[in-house]
Amino acid sequence: MHCKDQISHKDYQRSVDWLQSKTQHRPKVAIICGSGLGMLADTLQCQESFKYSDIPGFPQSTVQGHIGRLVFGELKGKTCVCMQGRFHMYEGHSIYKVTFPVRVFKLLGVETLIVTNAAGSIAESYHCGDVMIIRDHINFPGLAGLNPLNGPNDDKFGPRFPPMSGVYDKDLRKLAFDICKRMGVTQFVQEGVYCMVGGPNFESIAEARLLHKLGVDAVGMSTAPEVLVASHCGMRVFGLSLITNKVVKSYEDSETTNHETILEVSKMRSEMLQKLITEIIIHMDINNNQA
Ligand SMILES: O=P(O)(O)O[C@@H]1C[C@H](O)[C@@H](CO)O1
Questions:
Q1: What is the phi-psi region of residue 80: left when phi exceeds 0, alpha when psi lies from -120 to 50, beta otherwise?
Q2: Cys staple from 112: which of 102, 223, 236, 254, with CB 3.0 to 4.6 Å?
Q3: PROSITE patterns recorded for this chain (predicted)?
């Protein structure tokens, strides 16, 4: 990855101009759907959708379970934009391309970003099918210098040295938990630390044990770069991990992880997740339609 891959303000604006010429929707909330979780977009009313391949500057989704469409619409009167499929570095995209849509959302007027992902559990108490409200993250690629904010800082988006404490909005986390109580699903709900690794391989046992020692609750291959860029440009961030598999931490355990099982578990819980996210959006303060 080189800073030469960095994307200019003009390039983000080109994508924004294209989208605004095609849709009247002016979203305040953006949702990034993780592996197998794209069905949420299908529940939007008054939908208008665009294939990534048609949007200037957008890369292509290549992972199964990531459809590759940007869907605009309303959830109970609140205007949203939903990524049916995200980009991962392991697909070969630069980290700037992975986070490209987030800055496009910012320029479209989005104030709140909701990120979802499929993740493996490191915490002993977690089960497959649990939903983890993300309290914080460990960004391994970021710690190693692979950061979407590398290169000359664009002050129009945010400061050179952004803080990363308290990124996952406390009020939205509380709102989500209260909604889970009302939905009667708290037995499936956790709150914890998500760790991003580069992928595309799943973890070795020694790596899984290391993550456990570091206080990681769930591990995945996305989310942190998008959250970083959103937070840098002042967006409010809320994140959910769907626990799709248990990460093997014992040499006696012969179980292995695969993407197909991950997609099956995502499917199983997608309805609950859709309901939860819809309720969160309905109940969050949104300065709707005042672009
Ligand atoms: O986009 P997410 O983070 O939901 O995708 C997860 C991590 C890998 O991309 C893939 C592994 O099955 O699912």
A1: beta
A2: 236
A3: PNP_MTAP_2
d(CA 126, CA 118): 14
Question: Is 118 marked active-site?
Answer: yes
Full-prediction pTM beyond 0.90? yes
| Inter-residue contact 177 to 189 (CB < 8 Å) | yes
Contact status, residue 127 vs residue 187, Cβ threshold 8 Å: no
Assess whether the C-beta atom of 195 lies below 6 angstroms from ligand 1: no
- Topology adopted by domain 14-283: Rossmann fold (3.40.50)
Residue 88 annotated in active site: yes
Sequence-ordered list of residues with C-beta below 8 angstroms from that of 246, at least 6 positions apart, any chain: 120, 121, 126, 127, 128, 255
Dig out the tokens for 64 from the structure: 């199964």
Q: What is the pLDDT of residues 19-45, one digit of tens each?
A: 999 999 999 999 999 988 888 899 999
Q: Write down the domain spans for the chain.
A: 14-283
- 117 pocket-lining for ligand 1 (C-beta < 6 Å): yes
Q: Residue for token digits 């037995």?
A: 187
Query: Which amino acid residue places its CA nearest to atom 7 of ligand 1?
Result: 221
Q: Which atom of ligand 1 is nearest to the CA of 88?
A: 9
Angle of helix 9-22 relative to helix 100-108, nearest 10 degrees?
60
Over residues 132-178, the pLDDT tens digits come to 999 999 999 999 999 999 999 999 999 999 999 999 999 999 999 99
Tally the residues of the chain. Answer: 291
User: Does ligand 1 come within 6 angstroms of the Cβ of 257?
Assistant: no
> Residue with structure tokens 């991962």?
88
Structure tokens at 226: 């998008």
Whole-number Å distance between alpha carbons of 202 and 246? 11
Write down the residue that tokens 């493996």 correspond to: 120
